Amino acid sequence: MKNIQKGREPAALTQHRQSGGSFEDAGPWKHELRRALLREQGAICCYCMNRIDLETLRVEHLRPQHEHRAQQLAHRNLLAACPGGQDNPTHEQRDIRHCDVRKGPAALALDPVAGVEHRVRYGFVEGRIFGTDPAAERDVEEVLNLNAPHLRQLRRRVIEGLVARLSKKYSDRTWSRGALEREIARWSARDGSDFRPFCQVAVEFLRKQLSKARA
């Protein structure tokens, strides 16, 4: 999971809220909101970090609408999530659904806007994600199902591709600190306007390699 830096809320959202509108209302305001959330998050899901686009993203309420109606149009509470497995033909299977599709109205202890990177860790060989405390582990494993099989596979592919890139570029498997720091900077930054999918997985893997890096 990646920390999300919220920017200025779109003017259409402000106007819609001030006019007494609700989240269920259709209109151009919602299209502007979707575009703003996509830009804000660099086109990756607020939970799993997979690629999202304008047509398929889901507007997620971090704090559920049914319990927090006053925050249904609060920019701080609105995030962009992926289809959550619904684009998979077998999405009816519970182990396939993830992110906000799996979460539903459940409350989360994890808050990407407040900062979550320190509350998760990764198993790079198996592609798993773990919470660093019981509440975080519950969110990762049960509420969001971030260890759905296809998500684990996608994380493994990111690490395999990264290792192949470094091995080809530097030949020596004991990479230098400078090489690793350059890769960390690359994966931490946007590629144009977007972050790379699963970017924080790569960053954490690279940081782990620093401990055994050569000078």
Oligomeric status: single chain
General form: globular
Task: Return Rg in Å.
Answer: 18 Å
Rounded to the nearest angstrom, the distance between the terminal CA atoms is 30 Å
Whole-number mean pLDDT: 92
Give the biggest beta sheet. Answer: 2 strands, antiparallel
Q: Write the element-wise H/E pattern from the N-terminal end onward.
A: HHEEHEEHHHH
Name the strands of the widest sheet in spatial order.
1-2
Kindly estimate the percentage of residues that lie in beta strands according to DSSP: 5-15%
In helices, the fraction of residues equals 25-40%
Q: Unreliable stretches, pLDDT < 50, 5 or more residues?
A: none
What structural class do helix, strand and pairing data support?
mainly alpha
Could you explain the architecture of this structure?
Strand 3 and strand 4 (128-131) form a beta hairpin. Helix 1 packs across helix 2, helix 5 (149-170) crosses helix 7 and helix 6 runs antiparallel to helix 7. With 215 residues, the chain is mostly helical. The chain has a two-stranded antiparallel ribbon with strand order 1-2. It has a two-stranded antiparallel ribbon with strand order 3-4. Helix content is 38%, strand content 7%. The chain has helices at residues 11-18, 28-40, 99-103, 134-143, 149-170, 177-188, 199-210; strands spanning 58-61, 78-81, 120-123, 128-131.
